[in-house]
Write a structure and sequence with these properties.
This protein has 244 residues and is an alpha+beta fold. The chain has helices at residues 6-22, 27-33, 38-48, 98-105, 111-137, 178-228; strands spanning 145-156, 163-176, 230-232, 240-242. Strand 1 (145-156) and strand 2 (163-176) form a beta hairpin. The radius of gyration is 30 Å and the shape is elongated.
Amino acid sequence: MARRSDERDAARAEYIARMEKDGEVNLRQLADDLHLKYDTVRRWKAKDGWDPPAPRKPGGQPGNKNAVGNPGGGAPVGNENAMKDGAYATIFFDKLTPEEKQIVENAPRNSTELTSHEIGVLLLREKYILDKIKEYQALPPDQMITSSVMDMRVPGGRGKRKRDGANQQIGMYQKETPAQRILQLQEALNKIHGRILSAAAQMQKNEMDKLHLETEQQRLELLRIRATGEIGEPGDGDKDAVHE
């Protein structure tokens, strides 16, 4: 699932706040204030429907099934309303798509394959982080980037014009410079490097354990031959050929 842009949510919240205050919003000015491209803001507005929706009654609407199956009245088990990027999502096997189930079924089973797969995933994450660092390095040092938005709203209007979330009660926007973002990514990169080293050490240990096991099996086979005089033919399994 693609992660939704924080700048996109911040732009929408600011648009609604200005609309409630002034009754109209200059999109070009809004884009300049948020250090965004005008065409990008215009596309977000059209696609996300920033203009106020038609009047509706507060609370769940007729036919709403968000809380079906939950006696507490909240979202049912397995609901994904709060999932942002899937990094910490709870996996419900019965809700997986056939493609996702195939991924689980084809997952490596032995320790060596699993460790090798983990290293591959970590190297891919390393690439993503390095690419993102390059993006922030290309930005002006004084450009502010919205990192989080808190927009608390209350109903507003009266009668037929009453709307949910019409009035902004609290609006807080946390912004960071490119240097701050780069620092955070470098910390994540250091953790990735540590995990890669740990996985590589585990893979080396697995290979040494396998070599030790093979050597021990050969030693035991030699001891058996010396004691019995029987030499097992290749491919005979437990059947031994007797050589005089």
